[in-house]
Amino acid sequence: PHMLTVSFFINSPLLSRFIRAKTGKTGSSNSVCNRWRRDWDVMVKTVEIYGANGQKAFSKINVKCRGIVMKDSCVLISHEVNTDYYSIPGGGLEEGETLEECCVREVREETGYIVKPACHFLTINAYYKDHKNISHYFLCDIIGKTGQSLTIEEIRLGLISNWMDTEKIFKLFS
Question: Which of 2, 52, 70, 76 is paired with 168 by a 20 to 30 Å CA distance?
Fold first, then answer.
């Protein structure tokens, strides 16, 4: 799902608008999100992915929220150094949390950045084996910085956050 998301994001008109907004040339992230909704005529774009072994019936649903954060034309990426796995920062929804709260918490825990979701712009429903994995993607603004709060597993995997320019991301996720 991350490869599709990054490709979708980088190749969409939203990226150039978001970059211009982040560099102060066209307004706030909220105005970018409003134009996104107007241009696509949807509140949230939904993509369905069926893996080769995906089934129409599923016994488990995993819900995750991820934050796309930009600064100086770079995107914040989580990198598991020990597995060389890259992803958009985010993770699982906890009981009683809203999707936005999950996004804020997960980005803060993985990267140390405190963010404010500007808009929920993409949902990917991925079906693999008997699982349905739902990933909600938010465009976010940085509003502060704190330390990472990694799990034991994330420490074992060597999770770090990096700022990566869009060209490198496109090559990495293509």
Answer: 52
